[in-house]
Each structure stands twice: as structure tokens, then as C-alpha cells.
Amino acid sequence: MVRWGICGTGRIAAKMVDQLAGIDDAEVVAVASRDRDRAAGFAARHGIGRSHGSHGALAGDDGVDVVYVATTQEGHHEVVLTMLEAGRAVLCEKPLAMNSTQVEQMCAASEASGVFLMEAMWSRFSQAWRRAREIVHSGDIGEPALLRADLSMKVPPELRDTHRLWDPGRGGGALMDIGIYPLNLAVFLFGHPHRVRATAVLEGTSLDRRVTAMLDQAGGVTSVVTTGIDFDGGAAATVFGTEGSVTIEPRMHASDALVVARGDRSERIPLEAPGLGIQVPEVHRCIESGLVESDVMPHAESIAMHRLTDRIRDLVGLRFDADSP
What we know:
32% of the residues lie in helices and 26% in strands. By secondary structure, the protein is an alpha/beta fold. The protein has an 8-stranded mixed beta sheet with strand order 8-9-10-7-11-12-13-14, with helices on one face. Strand 9 and strand 10 form a beta hairpin. Helix 4 runs parallel beside helix 5 and helix 5 packs antiparallel against helix 9 (299-316).
């Protein structure tokens, strides 16, 4: 039995607790928040035995094997370093941190201490992404030429003053929170780009409303990635090849179906709907094997992806409040 601690008490934390409840060799034993009452209330609602009023207290809980960090992203760097220093394995929500310098520090701490760390880019474990990659590289749609991928969501105007995506102090904006899904898909399918171009609509210099990135990749493929928090862009992803196309149906980061088209024929392929729990068996395998990283989402990949978002931010002039090393 792998004993889990939950760092954070928001919606994503609750979803993961529900997922862990359905995994035979996982048990949620503790939860932490900076607000002791919030932690106690979360524990009561979810039947969790222990609650802590600080992240440090959770790090010091010797009854915890691995911590799921589900705080907002501007705090990931500090929290993860605290957990690793205490010897707690970590699965940290995406983005792993706010920039590549922070990610490099976190991965170095994991490797120096011999304690497992993985970024929770759960879509890389999904059937839809894996099956799409198989089809693209099988030659079924000919030579791949273009990926068009969007993940955008319109945050209702009435929530603008309270929603975290509109709060630069909490790592808000489109790119790092939701844009990293289509960026990860582009790299997952075609590798890291050799050329990057980008445009954005910003508010000041610390909040991105919309970002479009164009990635030139191996084999002559171009990926056009769009993301935004003030419009709905459709949330699908399509690879166009010389003989056909494959579409990951909306929402592309959590899809349960593909559509493969060749000429005037198309086939819809139903797949299992993913949940946050799809990455848990890999975490357990790595911990039980004494590994510090997963080969599905290794440290080098998290660093490279954050270098890519750093590059995009440089191109559009985006500077975060939570950007210090």
C-alpha cells in the first residue's frame, strides 16, 4: 500500500482524492493546507485521517510515502523543495514551476536526495494521445505536415476579479496553465522544435490573455498551438498528413475518442476517458523500484518544456510576478 498525502484543498486536489480511492494499492492518509480549518474540513469531507495546517507539517509526516502537490503553480517550487528535503516522493501538478531555472533546481534536488519527482502531465498517459502518436507515425495518414492544437477556455466575465487565471500573482494567464497541454502534445508527437515563433495578447507584462505559438519540428512538421482565457477555441487537436488526418476530439487534453480521416472516409475510434489517476501506477512503479524519475515524464523533459515556455514568453514579452528563481 502506497500512502499518499495531498498538498492543497482545491478542486484538483479533490479530483485526485476521488481517483486514488479507486486504486487498490493507494491510500490517502493526510492532507495539508496553509489554513488549518480548510485542511480539517477537506479531511472530514473525504474521510482522510490526518490534516495539517502547513506544508511543512505534511513534509514531516512519517506516515506519508508520496505527496501530490495541487497548490497553485506560483508556490510549486517552494513546496516541492520542502517535500524532497524531507524525503517525501512528489507528484506535482503541472506546470512544475514558473520557469526552467526553478525546474532545474527541483530536479537537481530530487536527483541529489534520491527522492522521486514527476510533473503530473497526465495527458501523456492517455489512450487518446498514445493512439494518436501510433497512427501518425504508422504512415496511415501519409507524411505528417501540420498539427493544429487548441486549448482555450472563456472564463466568465463575472469571475474576472476572483478567478486565479486572471490573477498574475497566482501564476494566472493562458500559457502556463492550459497552453502547456497543446505544447506538450506537439512535443509528444514530433519532438522539440528547432524554431519557435509566437504572438500574444497581454494585459500589461504579467498576464497573457491569448498566445499563439508556431513550432517548426523534425520532418518539416509545423505545429500551430493556440490558447486563451477569454475565448473558446474549440479545444481539439488535428494532425494533417499528405494522405489524411487524425483528430483528438475535444477537450484534447482529456479526450475519449479519435477521428481518422482518409479521402472521403472517416472512422471514429472510442477510447477510455482519462482521469488524473492514470499516472498513479507509474508513480507507484517508480517509487517501488527506487527511481527518482519516470521515463514517461522524465526530469529532462520537464526542463525542456519549461525552456520552451520561457522562449515563448521571451518572444511575446511576458514576465510573471512569481518569476524569481
